[in-house]
Amino acid sequence: MSPPGNLSSHDLAFDVALREAACAARHTYPDDDTRISRALALIRAGHVTLTAQGALVKSGSSPRVYTVNGTCQCQGYTSVAGGRCSHRYAVSLSHKAQALLPQLHFATLTRQDERQAWGDLPGIAVVEGERVRFYAEDALDAPPLTIHQRMRCPWLVLGGNCGLALAQATADGTGTAPAPSAGDCV
Ligand SMILES: [Zn+2]
């Protein structure tokens, strides 16, 4: 599953947050892998609308729209373990991804390519305590690179916080996150 091309910077950050949330869900419920993948597809297709009362999730296979608020009206809800249907996963992963955004930073990794030439790789860094996972912007489907902060890695530079960038973009009504800026070395 590839993200749509030409992601804006905050769409990119949200996609990485979704990948992190999905990874945690798969770790907890490995048997739900297929439904978690379906949930990601629903979110990326814009089928999830979060509201103050709950959420509306458009079915991926029919014109139906389900109201999801702890329960779901789909057939799967009553037949799958714990009622964890793809629609409930879509809502839960959307919320978790939003909550993860403050842990994400725009970042640049400087590295050598296969021709031994040095270059800057833009991406998103997920900061979790002492560990940082780096997702390269042009290789989101590849496993993230894990870097330990205590190594004081000189080739990873953290920029703006993705949660702040999204909040700022929303407050401005521009819908566009500010350009990443260089920040402290990890
Ligand atoms: Zn459902």
Give a brief outline of the structure.
With 186 residues, the chain is α+β, with helices and mostly antiparallel strands. Helices cover 34% and strands 26% of the residues. The protein has two domains: 9-99, no CATH class; 101-172, no CATH class.
Task: Detail the topology: elements first, then pairings.
Layout (H helix, E strand, L loop, with lengths): L8 H20 L4 H12 L3 E4 L2 E5 L6 E4 L6 H5 L6 H15 L3 E9 L5 E11 L2 E6 L8 E4 L7 E6 H11 L14
Antiparallel strand pairs: 1-2, 2-3, 4-5, 4-8, 5-6, 6-7
**Cα radius of gyration in angstroms:** 18 Å
Order of helices and strands: HHEEEHHEEEEEH
Q: Major sheet: size, sense and barrel closure?
A: 5 strands, antiparallel
> How many separate domains?
2
Q: What sort of overall outline do the alpha carbons produce when their principal axes are compared?
A: elongated
Structural class label: alpha+beta
Distance between the termini: 30 Å
Tell me the total number of β-strands.
Answer: 8
Mean pLDDT: 85
Number of helical regions: 5
Q: What percent of residues are in strands? A: 25-35%
List ligands, each type once: zinc ion
Arrangement of strands in the largest sheet: 7-6-5-4-8
What percentage of residues falls in helices of 4 or more residues?
25-40%
pLDDT under 50 segments (min length 5)?
175-186
